[in-house]
Amino acid sequence: HLGRWLLLPLWGQLAGCRGIQSALAPSGTAAREIAALWWSMAVGAFIIYVIVLGIAFYAVRIRPERHGSPAGYGLILGGGVALPLVVLSTLLTYSFSLGPTLRQPVASGALQIEVIGKQWWWEIRYLPPGQKQPIVSANEVHIPIGEPVEILLKSADVIHSFWVPPLAGKIDMVPGRTNRLVLQADQPGTYRGQCAEYCGGPHALMAFYVIAETPKNFALWLEQEAQPVKDRGSPLLMRGQRLFINSGCGTCHTVRGTPAGGRFGPDLTHVGRRYSLAAGILPNNIGTLAGWVAGNQILKPGNKMPSFNTFEGEALRTLAAYLESLQ
Ligand code: CUA
């Protein structure tokens, strides 16, 4: 009975322990160190908590007559000062010792990925060694497994924060600066990340996915991502592309290989094969594509794209089919 109440402070924290965005389900080198540190901190704090409560209980209920006696001061000094000092110093030393592990060096000449935080999405630029032009994408970071990948973090407007709890720690993206983080994933998987610094309106809806693949699959993916869109095969998709251009979508969005070359919103060249839509908040399919175009201000209020709610049903379906075909 008493134990249940003693555990109360832990319940809230343990509620967040599962799933693809958990720091306590680590899948990478840095994340594993951070999870180990978290558990040591939790156990250390719990030990202090139990001992201090035990001493308080003893002082109040069992030996109230000993208040002010030398033995009472012993309890205060031992349980209230010495014990927390020893436990907290040990934990502090341990946490500082992790620094070098978390700032892992990366082989020079390896792939770099630039992530630029924008209100309220992420521009992703792949910089393979020896290549001048970056390969531009959005809201999804692909990495090869089993090797450290350097992520260069920037911001185009306000402070954002890049955090993929299962893979690494969290680092702010500060305008005018380039911060650096190393991601390393052990096995192929899909990990969710979240902007972890309040950046205005739909900050809570600024998420992304990290997709870790075998080096072979990653190379294949990157090669396809670098391509412009191919010829739109069917009349439906041709109509969709015309609609996209004529409605002004290309003023803000780029679809490489077409006249759409806007730089304000996410690059949509391969939007159809992304895992999610709208910075990690919706599954990606023809229905959510149509819903996003027509009703994005309801789905993500305050985002910088207007709701194109004037499209007739058929036009909307055609446009969504075109976007889905951008594989
Ligand atoms: Cu970007 Cu919060």
UniProtKB/TrEMBL annotation:
Reactions catalysed: 4 Fe(II)-[cytochrome c] + O2 + 8 H(+)(in) = 4 Fe(III)-[cytochrome c] + 2 H2O + 4 H(+)(out)
GO MF: copper ion binding; cytochrome-c oxidase activity; heme binding; oxidoreductase activity
GO CC terms, sorted: membrane
Biological processes, Gene Ontology terms: ATP synthesis coupled electron transport
InterPro entries to which the protein is assigned, alphabetical: CcO_II (IPR045187), CcO_II-like_C (IPR002429), Copper_CuA (IPR001505), Cupredoxin (IPR008972), CuRO_CcO_Caa3_II (IPR034236), Cyt_c-like_dom (IPR009056), Cyt_c-like_dom_sf (IPR036909), Cyt_c_oxidase_su2 (IPR014222)
SUPFAM superfamilies the record matches: Cupredoxins, Cytochrome c
Chain ranges passing through the membrane: 38-60, 72-96
Span of domain Cytochrome c: 235-327
Lipid bilayer topology: Multi-pass membrane protein
Residues annotated as domain Cytochrome oxidase subunit II copper A binding: 108-224
Keyword set, alphabetical order: Copper, Electron transport, Heme, Iron, Membrane, Metal-binding, Oxidoreductase, Respiratory chain, Transmembrane, Transmembrane helix, Transport
Cell compartment(s), UniProt: Membrane
Pfam family name, one: COX2
PANTHER family named among the record's database cross-references: CYTOCHROME C OXIDASE SUBUNIT 2, CYTOCHROME C OXIDASE, SUBUNIT II
Function of the protein: Subunits I and II form the functional core of the enzyme complex. Electrons originating in cytochrome c are transferred via heme a and Cu(A) to the binuclear center formed by heme a3 and Cu(B).
Family: Belongs to the cytochrome c oxidase subunit 2 family.
Protein name: Cytochrome aa3 subunit 2
Originating organism: Nitrosococcus wardiae
